[in-house]
């Protein structure tokens, strides 16, 4: 019987054997890592063909993660999006609280198959780090997580979670002290310890085979959502919407819909304080083709190829690169990418919380903010799926400071007034 | 004007004729300043270096340890441009008449334009490039332009490189082969392991190009040890550390000149 939840790309046309999605992808890595990266590719190809691998992963995805994840209709929220019909794909309900666990369990099984005993990973918001620490606890693997120092501060709860799970968390103090620098440091560790260490990369970027392999582990999101929406709404959606940092939850949702030409694939990038301010991480909107962390894609860079420091209120989207398959979808016109500011995302976060009783991660709130605009464009007959990639518990400190939810009366009162305004808008 | 790959070949051949290893020094451009960096290169040539690699500082130096990261940060914060790197190459070459290479991550060249970069480097008197994150499979465009402009392409090999891959890499390279002594990033190490010697042996089995060893070498004793089995000894972080530690620029120049002198004795077998 074929696997229900591990559903690698059945088409296999992209990437090419060299790891190219059109002009993007490839393998720009130091010679010292070539053998290890090739080993991952070979072992993944073997695992993909092995029914035992699929059986093991399926079992974990059902009985540990809790798949399939729900598809929740959100009519009260959708009233603020012009009355469009909107469903959320609830990756926030997975064990550990985000989509990240799908990829992590797949690569953790692969780590065991390669006979490696130690795992390293980067993390931005901490969701990939928590998922990785979780899998390492489950499989008895040594675990080191690299996290930018700024992110260890703004996502302190997740740092504590990782340590509780037995992982070593290293705060990276170089560069912009965010996700890109955590990846740099993880690569440095990997070069030095590659014999016994697997780099459990957390997004659909990096050298081949990571973009394709991580996508395959997340394809289940879109495959489930496609089946669920056909059952619930009786037709395919007009749009599938997701936030995009490195792009893993977005490619997971989009991929099963790529052959459905009528389904718009809409990625929401972090515009931070606004594209025009230069303080953003909107790589596809404002970047240029270049090479970062092992593959060619769009990159935020200056005219001489130095990577520029990104900014987003969301630690998970605060990255100057993007997975090469998204660059390919953008250039081919199959994908659409728009930018969402910090403020728009935070408003959407609060709106979903108060209309539906679901507190989203700030990352996912970028998709929700994009969906509010897109819903108005689609109108009342429109139908859309938004990937709720993670839950917002980790972001409560940032959100409380943003909205003034701690015990300072004036600000709490202001928050209440804002809300009355939001409710008024919808009428 | 054509680049100086032939000067690089001749320099390494001359060292071999003297039955010694060549001394290859790495210094980042723009550190501590652009002019200070040029003076530092002149000083290591005066001290006895045969070849210099000029680093092009990068925002994301994933193959470098803390010492070179620090130097790169200082250079970039001061606004270093590729034009400054080219000026560094030109002045270092004109002052010394010796081969000067550039070592850089691939993205700056990709962004700047391969033709523009190779043309400017050749015009500055450069001898070639070391591109540590451009694997041989992705290097065809670079090599086409480098060949056209008389520039060498130095590939890095690592202890993890399999024999058949070594053959592919060395067949595509020119100038010399950079053998990474160990699995890790740049920085000084207590010892240079046996795996370096084994890698040099396996690499030499595939090529007649000189094989030079880098990563971790910081003193004359290590240089002498490596000179016993390799055609060249590459030293980087130890020079940068001397400049970082110096109280002023003059002291820094004296320190790197002295270190180059010690290492030059080392590569002649005297530790």
Question: Strand sequence of the main sheet of chain A, in spatial order?
Answer: 3-4-14-9-10-13
Please outline the major beta sheet of chain B: 9 strands, parallel
Q: Order of helices and strands of chain B, N to C? A: HEHEHHEHHEHEEHEHEHEHH
CATH homologous superfamily annotation of chain B: Aldolase class I
Instruction: Please state the structural category of chain A.
Output: alpha/beta
Radius of gyration of chain B: 17 Å
Overall geometry of chain A comes to globular
> What is the architecture of the largest domain in chain A at the second tier of CATH?
3-Layer(aba) Sandwich
Give the oligomeric state of the chains in this entry, treating copies of one chain as homo and distinct chains as hetero: heterodimer
Task: Give the uncertain stretches of chain A in residue-range form.
Answer: none
> What is the count of β-strands of chain B?
9
Report the end-to-end length of chain A measured between terminal Cα atoms: 51 Å
Name the strands of the widest sheet of chain B in spatial order: 5-4-3-2-1-9-8-7-6
Average pLDDT of chain A? 94
Number of helices of chain A: 16
Instruction: Report the principal-axis shape of chain B.
Output: globular
Give the number of domains of chain A.
Answer: 2
- The chain-level mean pLDDT of chain B equals 95
Order of helices and strands of chain A: EEHHEHEHEHEHHEHEHEHEHEEHEHHEHH
Q: What proportion of the residues of chain A form beta strands (DSSP E)?
A: 15-25%
List the helices and strands and how they pair.
The complex is a heterodimer of chains A (427) and B (271).
Chain A (H helix, E strand, L loop, with lengths): L19 E2 L2 E2 L5 H19 L1 H15 L5 E3 L1 H4 L6 E6 L9 H14 L4 E6 L3 H13 L2 E7 H6 L1 H9 L3 E5 L6 H15 L3 E3 L10 H24 L5 E5 L4 H7 L9 E9 L10 H4 L1 E5 L2 E5 L24 H9 L2 E7 H15 L5 H17 L4 E6 L7 H8 L5 H18 L1
Parallel strand pairs in A: 4-14, 5-6, 5-8, 6-7, 9-10, 9-14, 10-13
Antiparallel strand pairs in A: 1-2, 3-4, 11-12
Helix pairs in contact in A: 2-4, 4-5, 4-9, 5-7, 9-10, 13-14
Chain B lengths: L4 H13 L4 E7 L5 H14 L3 E5 L10 H12 L4 H15 L3 E4 L2 H7 L1 H10 L4 E3 L9 H9 L3 E3 L1 E2 L5 H10 L4 E4 L13 H11 L6 E4 L5 H8 L4 E4 L1 H9 L3 H19 L4
Parallel strand pairs in B: 1-2, 1-9, 2-3, 3-4, 4-5, 6-7, 7-8, 8-9
Helix pairs in contact in B: 2-4, 2-12, 6-7, 10-12, 11-12
